[in-house]
Design a protein that fits this description.
- InterPro entries: PyrdxlP-dep_Trfase, PyrdxlP-dep_Trfase_major, SelA-like, SelA_trans, SelA_trans_N_dom.
- Its main location: cytoplasm.
- By secondary structure, the protein is of the alpha/beta class.
- It is built from 21 helices and 15 strands.
- The strands form 4 sheets. It has a 7-stranded mixed β-sheet with strand order 2-10-9-8-7-3-6, sandwiched between helices. A 4-stranded antiparallel β-sheet has the order 11-12-15-14.
- Helix 6 runs antiparallel to helix 15.
- The C terminus is likely disordered.
- Bound molecules: pyridoxal-5'-phosphate (PLP).
Length: 472
């Protein structure tokens, strides 16, 4: 007991520690946070002394304070290396925006902009006007509007056309996508009575025709973006479905999911429907996402027949789903890049990454193999590997893109691998790979800043994987 008392007396006081704190620290974190951190560290030390631990030095307490300050002030949203092989990784924020979009968004953040103000007349303007013309030009639609994301676009379109009415959908298209977005639930929340037709694998034109009636508000077609039904199958194409609807005066809503503004076959990606194609097929409304293949910020686009878009715009729900000036600026700048298709792959990171040739990635893997091997140390073996990148976000689920990377395998025991993965996640710029084949695979398709990667790895080497593990 007396020993503990003596220890307590030797423990530096908060006031003493504050006097000795370098001014830089106050400058960086502010006096309040520094004082709190030091007080917490002293409290912890006191508890440890009571539990029998030796008295820490003033320096130890300062180090502990600094570690906790750094943790508190570092963001979990800090940039990281997405080396998962999934280019549009929903959990890692999907798209990287084009420089033009970043600049436009930053400028809009910093200053007032004419968001709903007409600079020509000085009258109130419409926020959609900034992107409407571009969307019409790029899709061939009569009218267009934009909301928070494609989930919101589908909800709003359904609610506008079929609240209190029936919406017909094929059983083969009742999809669930990530984040608990289930089409039947969305239809219910939109106030539509879902009328399922056909079977899981086969739905025919006669099924839709038989379901049409007085109370039908819309026919819904959903792009089965994250799976494929193969084998003995039948579906009714959008053009035929639009015609069936037209004959009964019922509009077709075609949810494309990702969709694309250009034909991607030029970049080796087949089969993703274009928005222009979907509009030409006669859908009353086409919805698609801003941050999937389009390569822009999160957004949902609703394009189609002028009278239907007008009805969507009159829906009070629209106000709850609208986008702000920052995203509108980024969307506008992104869409403008599509006006110059020849340079699109250079300027739009999503497309640039998807189109990156395998040889290029493999050469990078060769360069980085010794660097990574040195950083992870003798406990691991690092070798070149072939990878199959995925587009992600449900686009073209069965198509993979040949890629290359490195696989890190522990020389003994799998515990080491978990520790390494945790250490990589704990870096200033976390490195996120993918567990596969008893190793950690880093697919280098999305590695654009090689120098930054190398200097991040030196951080790992300096700490040592075992030490870095303690840093969350
Ligand atoms: C991704 C997707 C959505 C939702 O789009 P978000 O922009 O992520 O909200 C809706 N429908 C389909 C078919 C999709 O693939």
């Amino acid at each position: 007991m007396t020993e503990t008392m003596a220890g307590m007396r030797k423990l530096p006081s908060v006031a003493t520690l504050l006097e000795r704190t370098p001014p830089d620290l106050f400058h960086q974190f502010g006096r309040t946070a520094v004082t709190d951190a030091i007080r917490d560290a002293v409290d912890t030390a006191r508890k440890q002394i009571i539990a029998g631990a030796p008295v820490p030095s003033a320096e130890d307490i300062m180090i502990n304070s600094l570690v906790s300050l750094e943790q508190k002030f570092s963001s979990d949203l800090r940039p990281l290396f997405n080396l998962t092989g999934t280019v549009l990784h929903t959990n890692l924020g999907r798209t990287l925006l084009a420089e033009a979009a970043i600049e436009a968004a930053t400028a809009a953040m910093r200053d007032a902009v004419a968001l709903e103000f007409d600079l020509e007349t000085g009258q109130r303007g419409e926020r959609d006007e900034h992107v409407r013309g571009l969307l019409l030009e790029l899709t061939g639609a009569e009218d267009a509007t934009v909301v928070n994301n494609n989930a919101a676009a589908v909800l709003l379109a359904l609610n506008t056309l079929s609240q209190g009415r029936e919406a017909i959908v094929s059983r083969g298209e009742l999809i669930e996508i990530g984040g608990a977005f289930r089409m039947p639930d969305i239809m219910t929340r939109a106030g539509a009575l879902m009328i399922e037709v056909g079977t899981t694998n086969r739905t025919h034109a006669r099924d839709y025709r038989a379901a049409l009636g007085e109370r039908t508000g819309a026919i819904l077609k959903v792009h089965t973006s994250n799976y494929r039904i193969q084998g003995f199958t039948a579906e009714v194409g959008a053009a035929e479905l639009a015609a069936i609807g037209d004959a009964a005066g019922v509009p077709l809503i075609n949810d494309l999911g990702s969709g694309s503004l250009i034909d991607l076959s030029r970049y080796g990606m087949r089969d993703e429907p274009t928005v222009r194609g979907a509009v030409e097929q006669g859908a009353g409304i086409v919805t698609f996402s801003g941050d999937k293949l389009l390569g822009g910020p999160q957004a949902g686009f609703i394009v189609g027949r002028a009278d239907l878009i007008e009805a969507v715009n009159r829906n009070p729900m629209k106000r709850a789903l609208r986008v702000d000036k920052i995203r509108l600026a980024a969307i506008e700048a992104t869409l403008k890049l599509y006006l110059d298709p020849d340079r699109l792959a250079e300027r739009l990171p999503t497309l640039r990454l998807l189109a990156r040739p395998r040889e290029d990635i493999e050469a990078q893997a060769r360069r980085l193999q010794p660097v990574l091997a040195q950083a992870v140390g003798n406990e691991f073996e690092v070798s070149l590997c072939a990878c199959d990148s995925q587009i992600g976000s449900g686009a073209l689920p069965l198509d993979t893109i040949a890629s290359a990377g490195l696989v890190v395998r522990p020389r003994s025991g799998s515990g080491a691998l978990n520790r390494l993965a945790a250490a990589l996640r704990g870096l200033t710029r976390p490195i996120i790979g993918r567990a596969a084949d008893g190793g950690l695979v880093v697919d280098l398709r999305c590695l654009t800043d090689e120098d930054m990667f190398v200097s991040t790895l030196s951080e790992l080497a300096a700490r040592g994987p075992a030490d870095a593990r303690r840093h969350p």
